[in-house]
């Protein structure tokens, strides 16, 4: 049965807004996002993409939905701690969750619209 029905990887995503209006500004945002990406593992890489400033999308692909959500949650916590230590703010638009195919298409359309502008 396992050979016929291999487990399908789940895509887990979160939407966050990261801002910093202090002197460090964009350097603080970059450092915070790097702290979040540092939480990735070989089995579960965490990627962060810019949609439009200050909105970023974090995502990972994993076989275990729960472990993927936990990984993204710890990455969001790391980003939050780093950006707040540098007088910045984080706003979690969508907490880590399983992403459907329809949501992926909407996100791809947003990326295309941003590139055209």
Provide an overview of this structure.
With 117 residues, the protein is of the alpha+beta class. The chain is 42% helix and 29% strand. It has three helices and four strands, in the order βαββαβα. A hairpin with a 2-residue loop joins β2 (47-52) and β3 (55-62). α1 runs antiparallel to α2 (65-85). It starts with 9 loop residues before the first strand and ends with a helix. The relative contact order is 0.25. The model has no long low-confidence stretch (mean pLDDT 88).
Beta fraction? 25-35%
If you average the pLDDT, what whole number results?
A: 88
Q: In this structure, how is the largest beta sheet organized?
A: 4 strands, antiparallel
What structural class do helix, strand and pairing data support? alpha+beta
What percent of residues adopt helix (DSSP H or I)? 40-55%
- Give the SSE order as H and E letters: EHEEHEH
Radius of gyration based on Cα positions: 15 Å
Count of DSSP H/I helices? 3
The largest beta-sheet arranges its strands as 2-3-1-4
**pLDDT < 50 runs, ≥5 residues:** none
Indicate the overall shape: globular
End-to-end distance, in Å?
A: 49 Å
**Would you report the number of β strands?**
4
